[in-house]
Every structure is written in C-alpha cells, then in structure tokens.
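=== RUN LOG ===
request id: a7f3
mode: sequence -> structure
chains: 1
length: 289
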Amino acid sequence: MNKIFVPKMAVVGVGLIGGSLSLALKAAGAVGEVVGIGRGLANLEKALELGVVDHITQNLAEGVAGADLIFLATPVLTLAQVAATIAPHMKPGAILTDGGSVKGAVARDIEPLMPAGVHFVPGHPIAGTEKSGAEAAFATLYHGRRCILTPTAHTDPAALDLVRRVWEIAGSEVVMMDVEKHDRILAAISHLPHMVAYSLVNAVGSYDRYEENILEYSAGGFRDFTRIASSDPTMWRDIALTNRDALLEMMERCEAFFAELKEDVRNGEAARLYEFFQRSKELRDAILK
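=== RESULT ===
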C-alpha cells in the first residue's frame, strides 16, 4: 500500500461512519487537519472534545473551503442536497466521496453537480453498529471490513485511486463494483435484514393477547436478531426509498420463502420443515468458515 497524505479533509456528518474514518486516518498519520461539519452543535462539540476532528462548523461552505477530500456521511436522501450546496465552494482538484448505502441514485444525482476539476467517487464502507453520533466513532471500525467503490464512466482515475488508498489505510478491503450490482447485493444482505428486523419488533411489540408487554421476556436470541432495529430510522427510511426496486425484489423473494415455511408449519410437514431449516443452516454455516 502506497503511503498517502491528505492535508485537509472535511467530514460532513460526524457520527459513527464519518468520525471513524477521521480517527482511522489520524491514527495512521495520513491526514493533516479534519474539519467536522454538521447541524447539531452538541455533537460537533463532542467530536472536537474527543479529538475526532480538529475544527468544527455548522456552515457547509466554510467547512469545505480549501479541503482536499470531502467525505459525506449523512442520510442518503440528503447527499445530493449537501453536494449541491458545497459544489461552488470546493477548490479545484478537490475530491468528494460518500458513505451512502445506495449508489445508483446517489451517483446519478451528484455527478452532474460537480464543477469542472472537482471529482466525485461514490463509495460505501460495509461496516457499522447500531450506535450513532461522534461518541460512537472508533478508529478500528473498518479493520477487516470491505469498502465498495462504484466508479462510473465519469469517475476520474486519479481520484478513484486516492479514495481507494484512503479506505485501505483505514483498514478496509476495497472492492470495485458497478452501481446496479451494488444496490442489488446490498438490498439482499443489508437492506432486507433491516426490514425484517423492524417488522419483527413491530409484530411482537404490537401483540395484544396479554396485557403485559411480551418484549420484556425477550432474551439473547430475539435481542441479537433484532439488534439492527435500533438503527437510525431516518437513515433506513432514506435507504428504503432510494433503493426501492431492488429492495422490493428481495422483500418479495423473502415473502415467498416465508409463505412456503408457513404452509409447511400449517400442514405439519416435518420432513419439509427439517429440509428448510437444514438448507438454511448450511448456507449460514458456510459464511462463517
């Protein structure tokens, strides 16, 4: 890995994702100063106190001025709005990248906004927890995780190379992928599980046969399975809306398997139930090897 140094980076959205990238690059000595930009002053002040960033501002134009690299770590539906606001204030040669979980809509909306000499590299680090805010950030979040970059025909090769090396320094294995493939894969492995977790918690939480809240009896299995239902609702609303087609395809596929399982339970099909569970177990066990 070639050593790089980014003299000035701006992070828009100093939470788990943006803050962790800043801390990772700081720990590696790969960045000079980091400006944290956001709407919430209390979170920005906490980021400054914890050393996640070096300077803070609530003004987008002020924050990106003179930055060599700008990382957008805000909800997906806000990314194009933020890009439109900062575009006139980015210096020639600046590189803009993002951490959004949907890439097709983001690339389509942001690329036309870039001034001549400013480059956009769509990206998505596959890492996270259910926690948010500057206090959730930690330098090793991306260690051993994948980061998918989705260059288009308009992506500048030198900008793509720099962003690739940034993520490698942060500890990620970088994978190149086209935007449609990315959105379909993420709909399956990330977006669908979140929809299932949210639905399960709502289904169980609304069960009213008994007066008490039966969620109070939940133990390890339920809590582990539904951990991601504690994720930011705004983020997941945006993902559901911007990756709608791919997500609906996977939701319908999941519904078909659930319908099959439901009928086997209804009809007491012991052999079919065992086969269903065994097939799932084998697929799950294979990804742990």
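=== NOTES ===
The CA atoms of residues 99 and 124 lie 4 Å apart.
DSSP finds eleven helices and nine strands in the chain.
=== END ===
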